[in-house]
Amino acid sequence: MGLCPFHSEKSPSFAVYTDTSHFYCFGCGAGGDAVSFLMRMERLDYIEAVKALSQRVGMQLPEDNYDDGLAKKRLRILSANREAAKYFYSQLKEPGSPGLDYWLGARRLSPQLVKHFGLGYAPEGWSGLLDHMRAQGYAPEELAEANLVSRSDKGGRTSYYDRFRGRVMIPILDLRGNVVAFGGRILGEAAARDDGFKEAKYINTSDTLAYKKGRDVYALNFAKNTANGRLILVEGYMDVIALHKFGFTQAVACLGTALTREQAQLLARYAEEVVLSYDADEAGQRAAQRALEVLGQTNLKLRVLKLTGGKDPDEILHSYGAEKYRQLLEGAANEIEFQLLRVRGDLDLSIPAGKADYLREAVRVLARCTRIERDIYASRLSEELGVSKEAILAQAEQARKKDDRKQARDRQRELMKMQDRQSLKTDPQRGLHPAAAKAEERLLGLLLRHPDFYLKLRETLSPGDFVTPFNRELAEKLFSRLENAQGIEHELLTGILSELEQNEAMRMKLSCESISNPWQECEGCAQKLLAEKAGLERVNVGELDEAGYLEMFARLKKG
To answer: What tens digit of pLDDT does each residue of 503-540 get?
Structure first.
């Protein structure tokens, strides 16, 4: 058992079954085998996941004629991105390149670092990249899907033009080294255009088949190799590049969006501790607070660096050098100290009202600490404010109990919501026919555990006897394979069932793990299902009066 990598939790609900090499999360319902696990973790399609696992163990897959339209489009986008990155990098070599002046001059980067990050330049003009990519065999429609060019439909004509123009370019790589997106920064400061609008300082690739905002972490492909258990999380690309320049190669950024749960879970895979190094301004501190709330749902150790001497890491590094930043890094406040400083704010602690306001908020911070941490910080507050440690601890304990009750209620509500959403997403008809759905799920679970039952079942039951559409479709796939003497073990179904069907099949199978007389149970479920179906066929809801409708509804609800 362990913490699930697919949703945020602090109590382990993720089970790995070593005897069958499968997994299942009792919290979010994710389940499957090694292939489906990698598909989820790395966002690969089935064939890509199989190939990745095969390469890991040194197996050579036979060539096949596998054809998946979406997979091919995704690979084509990745290929176009790689070619575009080469083009942007090549533009730095053009005589008098503004991009090269920016990277080597304004940013004071070395050519080696520019190459390391694949930095480049998108020249002014409307079709530099478009013309280059066309010469490489890419159609404008493909480039639009990759968000490398934009489309215009005016005057009955469709035309395409470069999305990135007159900007320095930062390619974004995923963990496998694929170029999935780009960030483009305007040279100098954003200025008003002729039409009065102010041009954006940064523009970024929108969501594509190869890239989803809020999933990837910038430079994690580099940082994970040197993290040594600690990652430094900053706000933007430029801070990351500056930190790497000065030797802090464990720096990463969350790509211009507020930190997401997916990104937090990704960071937790490669580090034990995350140090937040956000800008010193008010917006940066608010962003740090939000990031702490998201990261607090993981088991990461958290610290917050207080920047002094500059507004961001880039400015401090270039003004004072690496040693100054290293000192700040080692002196970074842990999450508790950061929260105490935040709630203290500008309160005047020399007057009783200021002390009372501070303590009221401080005990809420202590309530979320461990017992040892609570004791340590209660002692500090006692000395600082002249209030007895016992009184502070008593208030913190009250706040803790109140928080625990609230969190328990919130967890229960969230679990119920998650289950309701999952049930509704899986099969909206389940709520209308609960007894039939229960019999169907138990029957399918037993069949997955005991495929030999099919030979006895097929004489009396068919997929058409299933009441709910989702379970009926799942039954059709399982019955069809068994009828053709094909296996229904989970690893054989990975490429046949959808992700949702795989999860539900795993849940159904696990729910039948401890049944003492499986065939007797299977027979009972089949009879119950046939009876439910016959009852539903006899009832014409449109002909029922109010009393008959209420009676039918009560029977269905009772199950």
So the answer is: 888 888 888 887 889 999 999 999 999 888 887 765 55
* Structure confidence at residue 558 as a pLDDT band (50, 70, 90): very low
Q: What gap in Å lies between CA 481 and CA 320, rounded to an integer?
A: 68
Give the integer Cα–Cα distance in Å for 338 and 305.
Answer: 9
- Rg over alpha carbons for the chain, rounded to the nearest Å, is 29
Q: What is the pLDDT of residue 511?
A: 82
Give the Cα separation of 461 and 470 in Å (integer): 17
Comparing C-alpha atoms, which of 272, 252, 98 is closest to residue 175? 252
Q: Please write the tens of the pLDDT for every residue from 384-399.
A: 888 888 888 888 888 8
Q: How many other CB atoms are there within 10 angstroms of residue 413's CB atom?
A: 10
Q: Is the four-CA dihedral 322, 326, 327, 332 of positive or negative sign?
A: positive
Q: For residue 206, give the nearest of 141, 127, 144 by alpha carbon.
A: 144
Give 3-state DSSP helix, strand, coil % of the chain, rounded to 5.
55, 10, 35
* Alpha-carbon distance values, 36 to 1, 193, 199, 426, 453 (Å): 18, 49, 43, 18, 27
Task: Find out whether 366 and 396 touch, Cβ atoms under 8 Å.
Answer: yes
Contacts of residue 293, defined as CB under 8 A and 6 or more positions apart, other chains included, come to: none
Whole-angstrom Cα distance, residue 319 to residue 168?
A: 23
pTM over 0.90? The answer is no
- HEC string for 260-314: CHHHHHHHHHHCCEEEECCCCCHHHHHHHHHHHHHHCCCCCEEEECCCCCCCCHH
Q: For residue 60, what is the DSSP state?
A: P
CB 207: neighbour CB atoms within 10 A? 12
Alpha-carbon distance of 14 to 6, in angstroms, equals: 9
How far, in Å, are 84, 111, 118, 206 from residue 96 at the CA level? 21, 16, 19, 31
Residue type, 202: Y
CA dihedral over 52, 53, 56, 58, signed as positive or negative: negative
